[in-house]
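This part of the workshop introduces the protein records we will be handling. Getting from the letters to the tokens is the skill we practise here. An example says more than a description, so a record of this kind follows:
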Amino acid sequence: MRLFVFGYGFSAQALARRLSPRGWTIGATARDAAGVARLRSQGVEAVALDDADGLAAALAQTQALLITAAPDAAGCPGLQVLVPQLARARVFPDWTGYLSTTGVYGDRRGRWVTEQSPLNAQSLEGARRVGAERDWLEVGRGMGLTVTVFRLPGIYGPGRSVLDRLRAGQARRITAPGQVFSRIHVDDLAAGLAASITRPRAAGIYNLCDDEPCPNAQVIAHAAGLLGLTPPPEVALAEAGLSPMGRRFYAESKRVSNARAKAELGWRPAYPTYREGLAAILAAGG
């Protein structure tokens, strides 16, 4: 069995770690020869983006295809590169997963959203994700691919969590009344993807997130306690002097339901809240 990834980063690596012990081989795209060499040194069967023959050959042997790269002004780069080679290979994966974002829902003033909630992206990045979701689902229908979309909140894990920001003195405890966010540990994300691979559903859409949306300041205070540090002082959002990207992050507040993933995939987060997730990272030396 082969997993092939367009955008072999933090999330894809977690899925690879889960599938490799089960006998899966891992392939991925790379931007250039240096990227190919780097991935191959990690045991990944890498193919350069401009190697059309290599891509077609790899896709013809792929059972699970994962696209993680963010869309740009021209749309999803993975779709533009992979679809022509999928058509050329004439052998389609059993499962195609596209990683999107809960940003497609926009701001809900703290209310709950499900996969059936209307999309109301309020940022350029969110709007591009809406378009990329639509394009992949249309390609799935047109080519007979089993395309599944995963809407993700903030992803954290070893080497990429508030623990690291606190140690570096970069964590800020910004407060905004009523502001809540969802999040997911990268290993729970990988577990959700693996569960979907065993239960493919054409045009499926799943929110993968933990069970407890909460204010970011609450997570920072808890993490500081785990490290034996004094939490950073609270700073009101209006006084935080955030960059435009930071302001966009705090412009949205919603609680994201994971009920469908639990019901249809049999998935349960090993880290149902940030407390279990951060404790596990710390226990592992992260």
Notes: The first strand starts at residue 2 and ends at 6. Residues 124-143 form the longest helix (20 residues). Residues 2-156+185-210+255-270 form a domain with the Rossmann fold fold (CATH 3.40.50.720). The chain has a mean pLDDT of 96.
